[in-house]
Write a sequence for this structure.
């Protein structure tokens, strides 16, 4: 069973993703901010991480940076960045280029169905 | 009686009158001869006035021979008009006073008259007894004539002088108005007058000339004085203007630096001094490039050739830097960085470039505002989208039956909720895009693109909509491979998607939509055309179709939830990237929209952001 870490501070969104992925038979681990997410990622080594950007304590991009710097595993683990921040955010665009997330995903434009398809693609389950 | 005998004897011996006859004892012959030959006419009469003797000159003068004269009385010899004078004056004077000297008029034998001057005296014998008269005459006719002439001449002269003196006096006073009237009768003065007149004319002329010269001189002086006056006024107003412009320059809130064609600073206003830390005196004569370096956002020094002032001087065109795109910073004397907007304008005098004016402004505040705005938009988009995402996802889960099977009515209601939520997200996205386009922050970043593949992707993207509306889309692509072209895929996608979704929506009401999507390549451009058989656009609103928030009545009737931003955005996007968008339409028959991209592709544009 593939293990997926969901790092998202907004409880309704986190729950929606959790429920959907559980329905799809994924093992789902949740974290509510970047710090928690990073710890959880390094502890549990999930197969894929869904990562929100704007979060308290530690934002998604900082966590991604630390993850990529953490070692060989962290460097290659697929990460789908979930965001509702537009491409206005300069820093994020820069980070997206440098940190090479596997996918960049604007939440409001996507259905959960699409997210599931993308996850399966990346895990080569599709 | 001895006198008579003497005279008598004299008459017989005229050449030598005897001394005894003359009663003169010594040298009597000589005297007689002298009387006889005298140039003066001499006559001797008795006391009664009867002529006793006349000499030769007398004969010649009166025309009588001596013989004829003897026995004739004095009055016969005198012109009639002189007789009263003779009787009352001359004869009594001789008789009573012994002599008379005077003038009178003689009467000749031939009755002609002549003027005489004479001296008459009483002759006495040895005992002192009067015995007769003797008179000596000179013919003064000629003399008289001469005298008259002289008098006449004098009179004429006087008259003429009377005429000309006032004129000469006037001339002396500089009045040449009058000339001398030349009398009709010519005389000795005529020539003089003519000469005088000529002289007056000459004088008059030279006087006129003189006056003219003097007037010219006066005019020149007046003109010079006027010029001097004007000059003084001009100088004052120039000084005022200078002061005014100086004050203006000083008061302008922007920094101003003037440089010559070599970039050497010739002027700086106070704001520039305050901003840059350099005093005018320190700056003058130094190169602006050396004194005030420019760096970009990344702290790289902008090379001289890329500085606005170099560009302005080399291209002779005004050059500006933007307040939003790439920002330049001036480095001050104290090595601090000030973000600035620069406008450099070449200074052209008489068609020659003599330097440039650098007007610059501290845009720290703009940058702050810009940043705040960006942050706000970012935050707003995040804050607005998050709850909508949540709504969408839970609807999706409900629809998927994750929470149990829904009945038809529940499904129908949820669909409406979902549509509303989607519409809100679309509106948020469009508004954000409008904001970006209108603030000029939109980035155009063309990449080499295969248009056919690109359009294929778009079609795949909107497949759900095509399926939902069951419309038919026919494709018309060139048979030969289409060369790749540089386009900003995000921008072009947004435009084509807008056109396609419009075409589908407005042609699929109550019938099957028929669309044609084509790509054509000409010598000038690529044309992507989206044609539909939809409701079309009314003539009255053709020119409003690209207006922000505008929706045509027939469009509003069939689709209530459009936001009126789609075509506006499409046009803004195309025009900001050097492309065009056109359309043709017939009400009730359909519309065709054309997107035209130059063969060279979209024009890249620095900017911070793409579209949502």
């Amino acid at each position: 069973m593939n293990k997926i870490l969901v790092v998202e501070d907004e409880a309704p969104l986190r729950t929606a993703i959790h429920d959907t992925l559980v329905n799809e038979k994924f093992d789902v681990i949740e974290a509510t901010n970047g710090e928690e997410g990073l710890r959880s990622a390094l502890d549990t080594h999930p197969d894929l991480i869904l990562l929100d950007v704007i979060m308290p304590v530690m934002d998604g991009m900082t966590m991604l940076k630390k993850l990529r710097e953490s070692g060989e595993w962290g460097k290659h683990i697929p990460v789908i960045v979930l965001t509702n921040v537009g491409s206005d955010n300069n820093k994020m665009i820069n980070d997206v280029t440098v940190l090479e997330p596997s996918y960049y995903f604007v939440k409001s434009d996507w259905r959960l169905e699409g997210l599931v398809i993308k996850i399966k693609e990346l895990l080569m389950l599709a | 009686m001895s006198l008579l005998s003497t005279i008598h004897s004299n008459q017989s011996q005229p050449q030598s009158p005897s001394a005894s006859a003359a009663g003169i004892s010594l040298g009597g012959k000589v005297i007689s001869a002298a009387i006889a030959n005298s140039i003066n006419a001499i006559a001797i009469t008795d006391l009664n006035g009867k002529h006793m003797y006349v000499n030769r000159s007398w004969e010649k003068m009166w025309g009588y021979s001596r013989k004829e004269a003897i026995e004739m009385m004095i009055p016969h010899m005198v012109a009639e008009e002189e007789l009263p004078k003779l009787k009352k004056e001359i004869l009594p004077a001789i008789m009573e006073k012994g002599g008379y000297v005077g003038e009178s008029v003689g009467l000749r034998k031939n009755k002609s008259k002549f003027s005489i001057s004479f001296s008459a005296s009483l002759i006495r014998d040895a005992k002192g007894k009067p015995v007769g008269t003797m008179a000596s005459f000179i013919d003064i006719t000629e003399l008289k004539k001469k005298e008259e002439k002289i008098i006449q001449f004098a009179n004429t002269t006087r008259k003429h002088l009377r005429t000309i003196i006032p004129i000469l006096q006037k001339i002396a006073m500089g009045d040449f108005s009058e000339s001398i009237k030349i009398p009709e009768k010519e005389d000795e003065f005529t020539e003089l007058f003519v000469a005088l007149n000529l002289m007056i004319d000459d004088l008059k002329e030279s006087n006129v000339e003189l006056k003219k010269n003097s007037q010219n001189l006066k005019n020149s002086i007046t003109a010079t004085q006027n010029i001097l006056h004007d000059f003084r006024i001009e100088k004052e107003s120039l000084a005022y203007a200078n002061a005014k412009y100086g004050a203006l320059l000083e008061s302008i809130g922007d920094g101003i630096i003037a440089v010559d064609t070599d970039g050497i600073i010739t002027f700086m206003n106070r704001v520039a001094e305050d901003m840059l830390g350099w005093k005018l005196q320190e700056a003058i004569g130094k190169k602006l490039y050396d004194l005030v370096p420019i760096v970009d956002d990344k702290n790289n020094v902008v090379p001289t050739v890329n500085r606005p002032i170099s560009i302005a001087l080399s291209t002779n065109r005004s050059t500006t830097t933007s307040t939003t795109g790439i920002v330049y910073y001036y480095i001050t004397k104290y090595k601090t960085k000030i973000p600035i907007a620069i406008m450099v304008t070449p200074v052209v005098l008489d068609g020659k470039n003599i330097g440039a004016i650098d007007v610059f402004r501290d845009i720290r505040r703009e940058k702050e505002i810009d940043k705040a705005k960006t942050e706000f938009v970012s935050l707003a988009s995040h804050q607005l989208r998050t709850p909508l995402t949540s709504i969408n996802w839970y609807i999706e889960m409900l629809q998927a039956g994750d929470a149990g099977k829904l009945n038809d009515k529940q499904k129908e209601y949820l669909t409406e909720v979902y549509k509303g939520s989607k519409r809100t997200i679309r509106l948020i996205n469009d508004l954000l895009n409008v904001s970006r386009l209108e603030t000029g922050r939109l980035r155009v970043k063309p990449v080499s693109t295969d248009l056919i593949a690109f359009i294929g992707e778009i079609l795949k993207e909107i497949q759900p909509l095509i399926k939902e509306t069951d419309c038919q889309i026919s494709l018309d692509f060139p048979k030969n491979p289409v060369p790749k072209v540089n386009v900003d895929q995000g921008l072009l996608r947004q435009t084509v998607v807008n056109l396609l979704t419009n075409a589908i929506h407005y042609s699929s009401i109550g019938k099957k939509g028929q669309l044609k999507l084509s790509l054509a390549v000409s010598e000038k451009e690529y044309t992507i055309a989206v044609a539909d058989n939809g409701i079309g656009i009314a003539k009255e609103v053709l020119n409003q179709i690209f207006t922000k928030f505008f929706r045509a009545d027939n469009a509003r009737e069939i689709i209530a939830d459009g936001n009126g931003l789609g075509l506006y955005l499409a046009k803004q996007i195309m025009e900001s990237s050097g492309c065009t968008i056109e359309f043709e339409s017939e009400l009730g028959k359909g519309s065709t929209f054309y997107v035209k991209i130059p063969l060279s592709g979209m024009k890249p544009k620095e900017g911070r952001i793409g579209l949502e």
About this structure: The mean pLDDT of chain B is 83. The first strand of chain B starts at residue 41 and ends at 46. The two ends of chain B are 183 Å apart (CA to CA).
